Amino acid sequence: MQKFIAFINKYGVLFHGLSILFWLWLITNHVQRFQTEELPLSKKIAFGGIVMFFFLSCFNLYRALKQRKA
Q1: For residue range 57-67, what is the model confidence (pLDDT) as tens digits?
Q2: Nearest to residue 34, comparing CAs of 48, 46, 42, 44?
Q3: Cα→Cα distances 4→1, 10, 12, 65, Å
């Protein structure tokens, strides 16, 4: 467990930053789809999930930065 915690402390900011870029990429793809075609409700719910994970990644990045400074 200590190895995992050390890994997260060392690479957490990088990992959360890359995950934010990934979620932004998915969001831009979905927005482009919303503009070109009508999507069913299940796709709209999936888009909401992507936005939720984006905000969760932002919060985790904030916590990792705060922990690194402490």
Answers
A1: 999 899 888 88
A2: 44
A3: 5, 10, 11, 18
